[in-house]
């Protein structure tokens, strides 16, 4: 039986490789979702995600979540608060607990997985697909195996069709994910990982540094 999923597609490295791996393994994508909660890079992320969906010939939607942006403003997240500086790092130390806290969006992946599951149930797809990874799980707990397991348990009782959450990149670090990206024909120019939404990636935020190190590896 063909495996159908609703993919959470941010336009960045991890979610793109998760979706590409799913397709390469014989799965289908009933829909790809990109979320706009007022983050600095929303337009850039959406453009990259839409282009990927077009390449794969799968349906795509951009969903606006202004209330999540409002909550993020209250929490002081640098991803949405233009009065707050996005933390910068180095190639050797792209991010740590403090920088992760500065860009944290309240319950973001929990919200995204739940929305994806609602669409998956509506479309008859048994899976909501996310691009989590081992490297960022060290500072972002909503990238971890524990989060994925808890999300699947929650969805088992929160959906009539028992939608489950899956992530093909869950146990990979960024270098391994970048290697898969190249095998799937994806290059940095096809993706948007920068926390900022300027004309070009800043090259100094945690996300830029992790992606650059991964592709260089």
Task: Please tell me about this protein's structure.
- With 217 residues, the chain is α/β, with parallel strands linked by helices.
- The protein has a single domain (4-216), classed as HUPs (Rossmann fold), CATH 3.40.50.620.
- Helices cover 46% and strands 12% of the residues.
- The protein contains 9 helices and 5 strands.
- The protein has helices spanning 13-24, 42-56, 66-75, 97-103, 108-123, 134-137, 145-158, 174-183, 206-216; strands spanning 4-8, 28-36, 60-64, 127-129, 164-166.
- The protein has a 5-stranded parallel β-sheet.
- Helix 2 (42-56) links the parallel strand 2 (28-36) and strand 3 (60-64).
- Helix 8 (174-183) packs across helix 9.
- The chain is globular and about 45 Å long.
The gist of it:
With 217 residues, the chain is of the alpha/beta class. Helix content is 46%, strand content 12%.
How many helical stretches?
A: 9
Oligomer: single chain
CATH superfamily name?
HUPs
Number of strands: 5
CATH class: Alpha Beta
- Give the strand line-up of the largest sheet: 3-2-1-4-5
Question: Helix/strand-derived class?
Answer: alpha/beta
Low-confidence regions:
none
